[in-house]
Amino acid sequence: MDQRMMACTLCHGNQGRATSSGYFPRIAGKPAGYLYNQLTHFRDGRRQNPGMANLLDHLSDAYLRDIAAHFSAIDLPYPPPQPVQASGSAMNRAEVLVRDGDAARQLPACVACHGQALTGVNPAVPGLLGLPRDYLIGQLGAWQTGLRHAHAPDCMAQIAKALPPEDVAALAAWLSSRPVPANSKPAPPVDKPMPMRCGSAVP
């Protein structure tokens, strides 16, 4: 599989560890269900990226599961976060959204779905740490504009559309500035329901 996945690592870095570009995320160690969902989203047009669509166009669901399992099993250390420029008030506002959410806007806390350590939850919820600021802004913007979709109900689209630009910038700065814990593996599945119905929760 390492040789077969060379097309992936050209953009996503050696073993899927990401590059310094800021627009190609780490895929190593992500939950297999999440990776599988994203591969099918690119292949089936829910996420817009011509390069990814061309790579995946003729691949079967079974092979996409093999790709997802391959990268999910790779355990690599994360580099330290890059410094970011953001005001103290913006970082404080972001941390409140991450830890507590905003009930008035029906925004759940990020940790309610992505895990208390923000390293993701198996089988299909990704971690939010270790991602570049520009990538986070780009993905939230893609949900806001409809360029990115997931299985219905698309909970992240609903959340992103409730975030004004200053909250998007603050969240991206806060998340990208946080170090990834030594145990970066996704948390085990939880029995309690998620705070929102989310179609991509189970692949």
Low-confidence stretches: none
CATH fold node name: Cytochrome Bc1 Complex, Chain D, domain 2
Structural class: mainly alpha
By DSSP, the count of extended strands is 2
Mean pLDDT over the full residue set: 93
* Overall form: globular
| CATH class call | Mainly Alpha
Number of domains: 1
Question: What would your notes on this structure say?
Answer:
The protein is an all-alpha fold and 203 residues long. It has a single domain, classed as Cytochrome c-like domain (Cytochrome Bc1 Complex, Chain D, domain 2, Orthogonal Bundle), CATH 1.10.760.10. It contains 9 helices and 2 strands; from the N terminus they run ααααααββααα. It has helices at 6-12, 32-44, 50-56, 61-72, 88-99, 110-114, 133-145, 155-161, 165-177, and strands spanning 120-121, 125-126. The chain has a two-stranded antiparallel sheet with strand order 1-2. α2 (32-44) crosses α3 (50-56). The longest helix has 13 residues, at 32-44. The protein starts with 5 loop residues before the first helix and ends in a 26-residue tail after the last helix.
